[in-house]
Structures
1.
Amino acid sequence: NLIRLGSTGHGIHMYENDKYYVMLELEFPFYEEILVRPDQHRPGMVHLDFENCSFNSFTSDTLLDYRCYLHRGNLHTWIQGILTEICSQEVRGEYEWFNLRYKRTQDCHNIYAESPSRTFSISIKPSITIVFEDSVWHAVPGYMPGPKRSNNFTFMMIDLHEELERFGNGSNLIKDAVILVKALCESKALCKITYDHLISTAIQVVEEDMFEQYTLQNAFIAVLATLIDDMENNQLTYFCNPDLNLLSHFQPQVLKDYINKLDSAYNTLKTYPYQYNLSYERCSEHFT
C-alpha cells in the first residue's frame, strides 16, 4: 500500500511545492509474529526479529541477517532494484509523457518525473507493518548514531493513523499555522526542520487547554514558541513515543544556529499583532 506522508498526507502541502511524500507499506505474512526489540543504545529505535515468523527463502537470503533480524540496508537495496527498473522507462501522464529518474538518499527513495511543461518528485519511505503492545504500528527504516555493529538494523516506530487523527483535531487552524512556520523556516534556510518536527510540535499545541480559543496568529506563535522551547531543551519527542527524540540528528552548533534564527524571528513576529499599521510587505518578508 502507498500512504501519503508529511505535507501531502496532513493537508499542508504548499501550493508551489512539487515534492510529494508517500510511505510504502510492506506487510509480511504473519507480521503479528515479528518481535519488536528496543535498541538498548538508541532510545526510541527498535530492531525487527523474524525468528518466530514463517518466511520464504527470498526473505531469508535477501532481507535478513543470520539472526533473522531485518537488515535495513538490504531492504533498501531490494526496493532500489525495483524502482531503478521502473525508472528506466517513460510513463504517460494525463496529457504528456514523463521521463523518470531515480535517486536514493540515506533512508528514502526519490523518483523525479520530468516533462516539457512540468517537473515533480515523489519521495518514498518504506515501512514494515508490526504489532507492538497489541497495537498496529509502522516501523520505518532510520539511522541514529550508535554502536556500528547494530547500525544496519535500526527502525523508528510511528503510529501514522493516530498522528493524522490528533493533528486533524486542530482543523484548518493548525494546518495554516504549520504552513506559516514551515515557510518561515525555509526563508531562513533552516532546511533540517522537517514536517516531522512541525507536526509533533503542532500536536502539542492542539492539545493545550486554550487551543479552542486561538486565532491563527495565536496558533502560529504557539507552534513557533513550542518549537524553539523544544530545540533549546534539545528534546522534541515523537508524540506517541516519548523515548524518540526527533532532534537526535542535529549537531550542537547547527542546533544553536537554528535557535538563534528562530528566536530572533519570534521576538519580532510576536509584536506584529499590536502594530495596526503594519504593511503586508513588512510581514511577508519573513516568509519568502
2.
Amino acid sequence: MFSAASLFALLAFSIMGSPVEVHNSPITLPMTRRLTFSNVTDILRHDEARVAAFREYRPASILLTNRNMDHIVSVDIGSPPRTYHLIVDSTSSITWIGARDMYVSSTGIDIKEPVAVNNVFYSFEGTMFRDTFTFTNGLTIPRMLIGVASASRGIAFDGVLGIGPRVSSRGKLQDDPDRTIPSVTDYLFWEDLISGPIVDIVNHGELTFGGDDRTKYTGSIRYTDITTAPHSSLYWGINQRITYGNTELMPPFAGIVDCSATFLYIASDAYERYRAATGGTVNNMAHGLLQISIDQYNVLDSLNFYIGEETYSLTRNAQIWPRSLNHIVFGNHNDVFLVVKSLLTPSGTRFSLQRFYTVFDADKSRIGFAQTSYTDAMTN
C-alpha cells in the first residue's frame, strides 16, 4: 500500500503446498515481497504516473501500502495446473494472467467476453475465461472468472490478483459495461470456503480471507465506513485528515486505500507545511527527496492520520527512507531522507498503511485498521 526497515526488508516467505479442507474459518496465505525497481528514478516515475492517473478524478486522494515492494501471491490455474505469480491489487476486483506466459488449459472455458483495463500503472486487453483457480496451499475455486491477456504492459510478473470491490470493475467488460467482475474474495465466500467477503493484509507478508487473524495485530481493529465521495466510493475509499504533531497539514478529504506506491504523497500545500515544520531541504541530487540532519530527525514529530474516530501515527522512523537503501538515492549511509513528497495539486494525499493491519470488509462496506508489532518500530 515507505516506512522503516519493515517496508523495504527483502523478505521471502516460503509457500507450503498442502491439502486444504473446505471450511469457513479465516484462511491465511503467504505473500512474497519483492523490490521490483533497482533505482529510485524508476520508482519515482512509477509513483508519479500513478498519482497522475488518480488526479484525473476529483475530488480524490490516494491511500496506499506499497507497490514497488510488490506483494506477490502464487496460484495454480487450469489443467494441467500451471503456477502463476500475481501482484496483489486492492484497486481492482479483476484477476488476470498472461503478462508473461501464454495461458494453456484443457479445462478453461472462453465465455467470449472481451475485457480491457487501462491505467497508468498497467493495462491489458483480452478475454474472460472460467477455469479452476488454486492457491498453492490447496485452496480451490472451481469456476472462477479470470482475464486472459492478449496484450499487456506494465507488469513484471504473470498478472494481477484482484481484491478490490466489484464496483471497481464497472466498465471493463466491453460488451456489457454495466456488469461487474467478482473478486477472488467474493468467490471464496460464494464457495463457502470463508464466512464473509473479508480480506486482511499484513504487509510483512500475508493475506487472510474470511476474518481477522488475531495473532497478527495488537489491540482492537477500528473500522470506518467507505466514503460516499465521488470516485473514491468506487474503491476502498475513506475520509481522513492529516497533522504533523499539532500542525494541521490537510483538512478532511476522501481517499483510496491502494497497495500501489513507495513514497508518501500529500497535497502540495500540505507538503509545504510539512517541509517548513520539519526543516527539510530539497536534495535534487537525491531525486528531490527532503533531507534532514540527524539533529532534526531526533526531534521529528509524528505524522498523524485521523480516520473515523481514530488516529494513526507514523513515527519519525516511519517517515524516513531506509538508510540501508541510501545508495540508490545517491546518499551517504548516515544521510536522512524523508519519504513524504508533493502530490503537485492542492488537495489529496497518499497514506502508507505499511505499519498497520488492514481489513477490507465488503459485507459491511467498511475498512478497519489495527496496530501491529511494526507500528512503532524504530529499526531502519
